[in-house]
Amino acid sequence: MSNSPEVWRQEMENELKNNILGFWMEHTLDKEHGGFVGEIDSRLKVVAGAEKSLVLNARILWTFASAYRLYGTDEYLAMAERAYDYLLQYFTDKEHGGFYWMVDAKGAASQPKKQIYGQSFAIYALSEFHHATGRKDALDKAVELFHLVEKYGYDPVYKGYIEALSQEWQMTDDLTLSTKDMNEKKSMNTHLHVLEGYTGLYRVWKSDELKSKLAELITTMLDYIIDDEGKHFHLFLDEEWHVKSEVISYGHDIEGSWLLVEAAEVLGDEALLQRVRKVAVSMAEATLAEGIAGDGGIWNEADSKGLIEKSRDWWPQAEAIVGFYNAYQMTGDARFLEAAGNSWSFTNKYIVDHKLGEWYWGVDEALQPLVHEPKVSAWKCPYHNSRACFEMIGRLTLTIKETK
Known about the structure:
mainly alpha; single chain
């Protein structure tokens, strides 16, 4: 990629403000029932009666709180406050604590189970909202959730966090996040996002208990969830950490590589940070060697026989931009800089919807948009792509300063 850091930063800021944030402000408000609509198809038709997910609502809150923290713009604050108010009014389980996994279109609990992944995103979002606004009520809620996750979701015998509990925080057989996931007690995905939530909370709440839990979680991921060669995550495990899946998720590998570094940096443990950096570079190396197509895009998944499918989703592309640039910042290796630039070029060419706004779900083997997939849904949120922009704006700004 030949673009200068200044040009690249301008491209990321333009994408963030004019395409991603602008789209969500214009198209996603539920003016009938409050909050945000649960699903919009690729042609921008609202799917009537769609459920509203905790993940979508929390990610909208995180995105616009981050945007407000960066730019101080009233319209971003209004979006964050709308998400915050809806979260507290409709997702809160007033009897048992925590947040419901899904509510229906009108805001009644439709899937009241306590998915630890969802609670973690709420911690992440509430922490960021507090960071951006200074509102103590948001921090209090995040801390309360942290204690609930530790009380009910933590495994005191083998460490780590179980996937899900019933509405009453009791053991349940229904552990899966989605139809794509295995029904196992522990997953990489949940641990990665508990890590994310705890990192965000520790930024604004320097509790000794949280500090020890975050350090333990980083260590647990290094010891049990990353393979022995330090190249890939194990996706599903039982409660004793026996591996239950051979699938490699390149998007999660490159995302996790930089999130682990961020967590160790925020924690401030130099010895742990050195260990994490070594693994993060190793994971970025493996993704670069195995997971990148000739056009610069990142593949979704593989197993021991090779690629599982030839379509490419939006979120691994976003994470590859940041993950490779993070590896470049740690090593100075120009291959990682080139890979980050190629990831953005691929994304801008094939994944960004330059006509209707936001990003397509992905592209097929022929690089055609997956128009049967939604533009907004329980999982299609403004978080991976906005976060890639926030991260790159910050990192490129630092690069520009360092080269002057």
